[in-house]
TrEMBL record:
The chain crosses the membrane at residues 9-29. The keyword Chloroplast does not apply. InterPro entries: GGDEF_dom, Nucleotide_cyclase, Rev_trsase/Diguanyl_cyclase. The keyword Nucleus does not apply. SUPFAM superfamilies: Nucleotide cyclase. It comes from Senegalimassilia faecalis. PROSITE patterns: PROKAR_LIPOPROTEIN. This is GGDEF domain-containing protein.
Amino acid sequence: MRRIHVQNISVISIAVTIILGLACVAIFMQGRVQFETLQQATETYISCEKDAKQLQSGSDYLTEQVRMVDMTSDLRYTIEEKINAINEQLARPEDGMPKVSLSVGVAFADRPNPGENLFKDADQALYYTKEHGRNGCTFYGDKGTGAGADTQG
């Protein structure tokens, strides 16, 4: 068996090799942590996306259910409080998750001067919320969102 003899290896070469090896390990570890955070955020997003698709596919059934429920503007305060509570919780993400917010537009059928389409009115209220900072709830007819609106904002 032959032995290989390494000659002329300087201490500097060994030190540079060790430093490069440690740098590679550090870069790998940092990338792994970032990858795990990204993977967790992606899994959460995919889960939410699946839920949204289920809601969307069941929208016809949901629409009929909403029509059957006598939901009046008396529930305005309750809806607003729930949306605000959800946004407060979303403002304090855990486990390194990114901050998100909830924007909602609401239109009640029992309002004065109802528009021709309840869903379009709710959508208009939602766009108002998004255009004015998100993270909230706007009711159709308020804040410049449609018929009978308070245009002062």
